[in-house]
């Protein structure tokens, strides 16, 4: 099969099938692995991703989220890439940018930081939605070596590496393993609201 035939098969959009209309930033967000190796993130777009993360809410405005980030072609990109799991290394080399999200988990007084990981999660969701607004895609990953990231970048003990993120533009399925092609083409699904939101007693659905 030619690259052109592969490109036709890549879903340019996977809008969520929702019970009521959602904002396009939410409905159009998905996590492709088929990224364009020639696409770049501009200076403004790169800054906007982390500016969006900076303005996420956090417990007591403690702002626990930190990031190590770089764009393809930079030495730090390769260092981040080196901490990823074998499965993620195979497709993330085509990303335009990579980041590791780090949460502050111990405060300046040496006490556990309340909701540090939750704050990083909120910030990273802001980053992901800003990527959609920029016409980009972001794919979050648990598959990376936290200890390797800590050692590689000198992350202090009061911070914990939690998530890796690849950002880029949609590419083609050309050269991707069959198992990843299947994931790219698979429809997006979620549990129904009746299994997620309850009222009066546990398990009694609102919707």
Automatic annotation (TrEMBL):
Keyword Oxidoreductase assigned: yes
Domain Nitroreductase: 27-75, 115-168
Record's keyword terms, sorted: Oxidoreductase
GO molecular function: oxidoreductase activity
Record-linked SUPFAM superfamilies: FMN-dependent nitroreductase-like (SSF55469)
PANTHER family to which the protein is assigned, alphabetical: NAD(P)H NITROREDUCTASE YDGI-RELATED, NADH DEHYDROGENASE_NAD(P)H NITROREDUCTASE XCC3605-RELATED
Sequence similarity: Belongs to the nitroreductase family.
Name under which the protein is recorded: Nitroreductase
Biological source species: Saccharopolyspora spinosa
């Amino acid at each position: 099969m030619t690259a052109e035939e592969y490109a036709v098969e890549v879903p340019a959009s996977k809008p969520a099938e929702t019970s009521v209309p959602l904002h396009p930033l939410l409905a159009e967000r998905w996590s492709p692995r088929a990224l364009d190796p020639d696409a770049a993130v501009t200076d403004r777009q790169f800054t906007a991703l982390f500016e969006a993360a900076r303005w996420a809410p956090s417990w007591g405005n403690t702002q626990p989220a930190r990031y190590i980030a770089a764009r393809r072609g930079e030495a730090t990109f390769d260092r981040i890439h080196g901490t990823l799991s074998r499965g993620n290394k195979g497709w993330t080399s085509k990303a335009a940018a990579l980041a590791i999200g780090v949460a502050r988990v111990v405060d300046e007084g040496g006490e556990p930081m309340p909701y540090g990981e939750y704050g990083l999660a909120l910030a990273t969701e802001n980053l992901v939605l800003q990527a959609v607004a920029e016409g980009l895609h972001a794919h979050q990953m648990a598959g990376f070596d936290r200890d390797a990231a800590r050692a590689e970048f000198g992350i202090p003990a009061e911070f914990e590496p939690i998530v890796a993120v690849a950002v880029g533009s949609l590419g083609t399925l050309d050269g991707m393993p069959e198992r990843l092609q299947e994931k790219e083409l698979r429809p997006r699904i979620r549990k129904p609201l009746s299994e997620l939101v309850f009222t009066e007693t546990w398990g009694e659905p609102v919707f």
